[in-house]
Amino acid sequence: TRRPLSSSRVMRRLRDAGVRFAIDDFGTGHSSLAQLKALPVDELKIDRSFIRDLEQGTRDDAIVRSAVDLAHSLGIKVVAEGIETPAAWTALMRLGCDYAQGYFISRPMAPDQVGDWINEVNARLAGAESGTAQVRVLNELRLSKGLKRP
Fold first, then answer.
1. Measured by CB atoms within 10 angstroms of the end CB, which terminus of the chain is less buried, N or C?
2. What is the pTM of this model?
């Protein structure tokens, strides 16, 4: 009889076919370092509970910095979930996070609005040379869309 394929073998076959995998809510629940070792993941999503109160020199800062460094050393991209403040945005840029999501960047929107939003953000961020300028641009975009400050 044939043995069933293990999860990691199935994932590797799917990855070879072009499917990409992410570990969601990293640092909480069932996510673990063993998954990073055993599974062919492309992206690590750091749980919002570590992002919410992110400030330099705190435990959250140490955890996020370590997760980013670990992921990058394994060739894995990092997504920070739940960015709601300019301070968190700035801290994640400092830590080298690859991608960000959260209400500070944008509230959920209809699919037909995404293209225009991306074009507007890219055009406005192109002139922002520093992290401080990027935060200012994002705040201006939020306010122009009628969104409240976090």
1. N
2. 0.75
The DSSP call for residue 98 is S
Distance, in Å, from the CA atom of 102 to the CA atom of 97, rounded to the nearest integer, reads: 14
- From its phi and psi, is residue 18 left (phi > 0), alpha (psi between -120 and 50) or beta? left
Distance CA(10)–CA(15), nearest Å, equals: 9
Ranges assigned E (strand) in 27-141: 43-46, 77-80, 99-100
pLDDT in tens, 37-80: 888 999 999 999 999 888 888 899 999 999 999 999 999 999 99
Give the integer Cα–Cα distance in Å for 69 and 52. 19
Read off the amino acid at residue 98.
D
